[in-house]
Design brief:
With 130 residues, this protein is of the alpha/beta class. Helix content is 39%, strand content 13%. The longest helix is centred in the first third of the chain and has 27 residues, at 13-39. 19% of the residues are buried.
Length: 130
């Protein structure tokens, strides 16, 4: 699959993201719609905002197109840093949230907890001293 190759022969992050959305998007949205219809409950989507990867105007439009017909809420989660002392980029998530709300999608930015001790979502792991 030469067309999927990015740097060093690996697929680029954008290619992976587009592939995952194309593969799962339709099935996920259909299942969410079915669930909402059967239960009458609102769906909560979790979306990790990675600055420069999935926070563009175009991606906001795509996500809004997928979700705005559903009774749902989109929880935006700022990407947590991998290094101690760094802070999540709440501004990118807030900007993406404004883009979604401007397109009629209920969206909120979740606040990160535990980042100061590398215990937030996506950070759990050990350190080895060599």
């Amino acid at each position: 699959m030469k067309e999927l190759e990015g740097i060093h022969g690996r697929p680029s992050a954008t290619t992976l993201l587009h592939g995952l959305v194309a593969l799962t998007g339709g099935v996920l949205i259909a299942a969410a719609a079915h669930y909402a219809e059967r239960t009458g409950r609102k769906i909560a989507f979790q979306y990790v905002v990675v600055p420069g990867l999935n926070d563009t105007e175009e991606q906001a439009t795509q996500l809004a197109t997928l979700t705005k017909r559903l009774p749902c809420m989109v929880n935006l989660i700022p990407q947590n840093p991998l290094d101690e002392g760094e802070k999540p980029d709440d501004r990118a998530a807030a900007r993406f949230g404004r883009r979604l709300r401007g397109r009629g999608v209920a969206a909120v930015v979740r606040r990160s907890r535990g980042a100061e001790v590398l215990g937030a979502c996506g950070q759990l792991g050990g350190r080895a001293e060599l």
